[in-house]
Amino acid sequence: MLAAIDFLDIVRLTPLISIDLIVDDSTGRVLVGYRRNRPARRTWFVPGGRILKDETLDTAFTRIVDAELGITELERSAALFEGVFEHHYDDNFAGEPDVSTHYIVLAYSLTLSSTTLVGRLDQHSEYLWLTPAELLARDDVHDNTKAYFR
User: Site positions for Critical for catalysis, renumbered to this chain (predicted)?
Assistant: First the structure.
């Protein structure tokens, strides 16, 4: 496990690579979670997570889906690759001044047949299902999430 001070140096010096999950249901509503942690704390954001060192994309995808949605063993091939995005934040996980966070994000979309599978609250304090129009109209949905629907 990487010490927080070492991870802060990584955040200070390099971009992070992550996977975002653009999850919708059979009616077209999109899943967003209210972020507990920095960056993007206190905003609604799609689920996702960082790719770990030496972790394959397939392993990362399956781990992130399990951690964020509580769905085990879902393979990356079950999702549609939506593209590469960049997320820039003036903030960082530690709240350290003058350290920004830069993510290179691989976005994948998937449709869930049941909305009752969601329930992990490690990164998010609650979840909502919003239509794309509702999501775009809200001031408390982060712009990086809105970018997936513009």
Answer: 124
Q: Give the residue ranges of the annotated binding site.
A: 48, 68, 123
What is each CA distance from 84 to 41, 79, 91, 105, 120, in whole angstroms? 22, 15, 21, 6, 25
- Binding-site sequence positions for Mg(2+): 48, 68, 123
- Domain interval for residue 80: 4-149
3-16 residue pLDDT tens: 999 999 999 999 99
d(Cα 45, Cα 34) in Å, to the nearest integer?
6
Could you tell me the CATH number of the domain that includes residue 16? 3.90.79.10
pLDDT in tens, 61-112: 999 999 888 888 899 999 999 999 999 999 999 999 999 999 999 999 999 8
Cβ distance 46 to 19 under 8 Å? no
| Residues whose CB falls within 8 Å of the CB of residue 90, separated by 6 or more in sequence, listed in order | 39, 100
What's the longest Cα–Cα distance across the chain?
A: 44
Q: How confident is the model at residue 121 (pLDDT cuts 50, 70, 90)?
A: low
Q: Tally the domains of the chain.
A: 1
